[in-house]
Amino acid sequence: MTDDWKGLFERGRVIPPHSQTVRLAQDSSHTHSQGFQIILKHLDGPHIQQEKKEGESEGNRKREPVKYQLSVSLFDTSHQHFFGRTLKSLPQQMSGVHRAMFNEVVYLHTSLRLPSVVAVVELVALQPRADGSQHALGCGFAILHLFSSMTEPQATEGDRRLSMYHGTPRTLLHPLVRDPIEQNKLLRPIDGAHLVCSFKPHPALAPAMHLFPQNMLVSGDENIPGVTPSPTGDSLLKPHMVKSLTCFLDRLSISLHPSLEKFESQLLQHVSTDCHNTKHSGPESSPVVVIQERRLHVGVHNGWGFLERPQVVVLETTEATDWSRGRTKGGTSRQGTLTRDCSSPSQSLALRSSLELKLPSHQAVGIALQLEYVFSSSLIGDGKLSSTSTISRTAFMQCLRWGVWCPFQEWGALRAEEVKLSLQGGSTPNPYGIMAYTSSSNSQSPAQEVVDERDMVRFRLSSSSVQKASSSTAVSLRRSRTGQQRKPPSPSPGQSRRASQASPPGSPQGPGLSMSQLAATSRYPTMSHSTAVSPWQQPFSSQLYPSPLASAHQLSHVELPAASNITHLEVDLNVSPRDRLPAYQSAALANEGHLELQELPFTPIHAPIITMGTHAAPSSSFVSSRSSLAHLYSAGFPNITDPSGLVAEVQDPTEPVNFDPQREEADPLQGNVLLLQFLAFSRIPQQGGSSNWPDSVHFTFQLYRFPPVTTQRLKLLGIDKLPKKSSETPPCVLAVINKDGTVNSGSPGLQLQFRVDGAFLQPGERRWFLRYLALHTLQVDVWDSQSLLLIGSTALGLKHMLRQGRPAVQATHELEVITTEYMGEGVPVSLHRAPNPISVFTTIKGRLHLRLGNVGCPVDQNKPNKPQCLPPSRSHIISPPDATSGFTGGSLSSKSIQRLSVRNAARAQRLVELDGDLVPLLQSHMKEGGGTPCTNTPWWGETDDVRQRKLNRMVAVRQHEGGQDGTGSEVKTKVTGRRAERAQLARDLRLMHAYRERSKAEGITHILSQAITIHHTLYATLGTAEYLEYVLRNPFNTPQTVTIYSEDPELSVITDCDEWRYFKTLTKTLTPLEEGMFHLKEGTLAPQVYLRPKESVHVPLKYQTFVSDNSVVPQGPSLIPSGRSTQVAKKHLSNTVLAKSIKVTFRAEDGKPLAICQVSVEPTPHVIDQTFRFYQPELSFLKKALRLPSWERMPVGDTDAGSQISVRCSDPNVICETKMLAQGEPQDVYLKVPGSPSPQIRKFFVTVFTDKWLAVPAQVWQVYVHFLQRVDISCVTGQRTCQSLLIRGTQATRKVRCYTSHPQELKVDPAEVFVLLPGVVQDLQLCVCPLRAGSRFCYLTVVDVEQHTLVACWLLSLTCRLPIVSKAFEMCAPVGGGRGSTRKITYTNPYPTSRVLLLRSDHPDLLQFKEDSFEIGGGETYRIGLRFAPSQSPGAQEILIYINNQEETTEETFCVKVKYT
Asked: I want to staple 436 with a disulfide (CB 3.0 to 4.6 A). Which of 38, 345, 425, 1133 is the partner?
């Protein structure tokens, strides 16, 4: 090892970046490194102070000038972490104009192209001392931002002026310094000090990036091994590579002191002891440690890094060889025993093949070697290792020795001579970045271990020409060795096989093996160390795990370029250059102490939920019969009539609607009254449910911007007049249930109305309301009012509510209520096999009969009309009033004050009216105009009675003490009272004077700010961007640079010209647009605009919020009758953004406000396009995918809608994202919702945007996640399984009842209403008897029967498996009508006693029993009667028959296969 290589190696080590920053760069697809160039030009610093030289005498000695130096380092602002290497420039002097010219060029290459990565430049003053040394003094530092915050970070070109800050870069390590750094108060800029520099990409650096590590700052004049020096002094401006020589390394052997056998025996003892001490194998059994492989890492290193990926070859044990003579002493070593003759030659490690290396002709280029052993350990209870069985073992690796040899430093040219290189170990830094093993004999001092030359490696290095000349000799040597291998000296059959495996013909370069390939059976002799096992054992399979004695940086070599490809002797594969990993990744992972796996292209399996979009599907393909409809509408539902009393025109829901906006605008009835009539609900029998389910229902929905509606409970009243032979399920009329539980005897059904007129709509909103009716759907959720379980959902289009000039319209819908169920969601998904399919199916739970109507109404003339729309040029422009008008004189009466502007006039008021805190401090009474004390309100807030009572007590005390008569006392009391009152008045006057002096400046400032403040009100909805333009005018005769500050980041300035143009086009604002109008203030993110004297500009503002009220209404029906109007509902707005007031201040250069815009945000409810409800186990993450509708059907204004898809969520704790796919591929929105305790409900909103600037959401989704207690139940179909559940009482006594989603399969005890006492734990017995196999979810709720609220809820995860079928039958049944088929099967009682048995079937709709139970004696036979229902279509069906005992335990299971032909 030479000093040149060693010096470069010591100077070339870099500090790795933070591991999280590395992962973030990899997640951002920044995996390849890119070259960059930093040019530090000059520094302007007139105010940089210079410190006096230390130790300088006050004599006449001439003072040497102070020189300045720049030091550059990389810094991660996200984690406050310096990394890389600090580069120092050449010292320069400050000129007379206070400028230091550096012109220093710095190069680096990195893949961490993130906004958090910056360069910190420190200015250091070098002051010479008397002893000739220099005193370094930090004079400030600057921060250079390298990459922007764009999706694809790019370097910024052009000169940049960086502000210098006081102190040293260590200030950035203060815990209060966070992003953005420049805005931190701890950083104080130096007046007038600036550093001029530039930063830009440098593509010419790509050929030389492999010669020095990433994130390493280098100068162009540095000597980089592998780069030809440039005559200009900058070798990296256009780097030229040194020509590489192709060399071959062969005849390599390694000898270890004192011998290979003793060295390995001692090594195994140390490893076994370490395994036992660390308890890696457990405390009860001793580990068996063996040597599985011996490897050698060979790579070319230039002092800064490996030029290529090091090769890894497997060594074999052989007798000591003399390669110079071309023969072996003693032949191949024996493998059967460890005992050897003392006179026999010692063993060594040898490589029989040659390695090809490419060496640049440079003195600092060296060949780095590392000897590595692979160990295996196993736990054997009895201390013996079986050679006949395959044992699972743990394998780990350990570095033993390393060395570096520089061929061009030793010889200057390659020679075909033998090289002897001593190997070293221990903790000395090495190119592979890991710690090496050191024996106890060599552990006295590191110096002795370094100079120890007893561990030697011998090899020959020759160029390609020498290799060709000696190729014929090498061939003859291989043939002679092959002949010796074919004729071993009388080996046994097992030894001959092992010898052939241990002596392959050659060692060509091999591939990089994976962990599974390393776990394959070894072909090389395996040495073990145990007290009860022979040292040499048969090969065995093992698994590769980290070493128990390896430290964090010992494990890093698995990811280092130094250990990537394993060379086996029988393979010849090439390694792709793409497998080369950057050095900083391995170093970062070494600090973390674990290995990071590379992500494979794998898409998680989510069952996508199809959204309905804005267009409703057809209501239903099923229509009730005429007789059912006739009996239904004979119930007497109220008619929908127009203002004149005529029945509204009926619309056919199946016919298309022609929408004419001009006709709607010309309608004289500008108001609309929307009517919703819930008429009836048709039950559909469900498997495992009752035929009378549900008994009562209620509905939830949200229409337009109205608050969410939860209706009352509605009773299902059956129709008794239908024919009994009819197979159709009759519709049940809905009737309102009163608070006392009785059914309302009034008109059937439930009617809700929503008034949409000028009092409800904002200016210009009517066209948006009509657009909503034309394009959107209304989703209605149907709930079971008893169990509070969701029955299903339905949706209908609102386009038939468009009147198109007619006074009133109506349409009747028969809608299918459906629910979506998912099966198999818990099945694990494998990457290497096809995933199990996720069954997603919908079930029809019923049919809802609903009538929609729209009745036109005139606008109320008594109320002031709001303008229907504002002029486009004025609707979004905020213009301040004319400031020239003011108070012209006259009386300040109340009437004159009203005529004046509030900003220009202020009337005097009493101090106690301005500040209520001043009242308790005053002691005198408040006087009225006549001078008499006010009898109602004293100054300090006391009543007259209280004060008079205090005065009377004071008089009585003085009379008693003085003994005076009543007349004298009264006179003295009056005099004393007047003196006290005067003293109180004097004290109050002094207090008011002090208060007035203190608040005078604040009051004047407030009045002046009101004069320049303009108020504006905007009505904001969730996700919608509100565009504003403020007319800013410079009132001064001098130019001003105005800085714009906003109190809330939701109200911001639009600085992007393209975004400004987009919003002006969207809002049709006809005002001038100027490019490049704004620039960011240095050190802050506040935009600035330059104004000429008396100039006015339009400042674009945008308000947009994604935060909404996510509170959830308690689950259950509404107890308040649904109102006929919306006045009450307006007072309880829900799903709205928060009301706030935001101040935007425009400050001049002197920091004083030039203008103030006070924006008041009024919340308005937003439109809900679709509602999703999910049920999830408590405290677990919900992961779902929602599929977006096709973009052709989306109502978007941007033609490039499909290529710009963005999603936002109102809950910051919910992860919501979407991935861009190829054109035509379906788009999914992925949700990840954190869990909550049961029975909490999390509600949030998801807004989907299809435009680039997120102006108007194309879809707004409302998502409910119900978190329930999960209970896993494993059961057998047809057999009862019991589970105990506990419920704790709340704070009050409640009457509750349990309900299940599958009453036929789930039974709860107690089944009736019971009292739940406060704090008392109640035991619930749940019995599950499933009919079909599979995995599914069921629900159990506990409901308060008085308040109709949910008390507790469980999510039951059922895993049902089939029982063992004891008998199988087959039969044929005809297809078509009829009474079905009857059969009989026999059952024999195997017990000697009588039994009562029960009969169950998994298809009760297809099979019925003659008797559901029977009693059979011991050993008797019983004939079971079966009746099979007819089928309308051919096919086959397997039906299971369960024969259960009285405890519902299955005794026998019969399978009947029915073929319908």
From this structure: 425
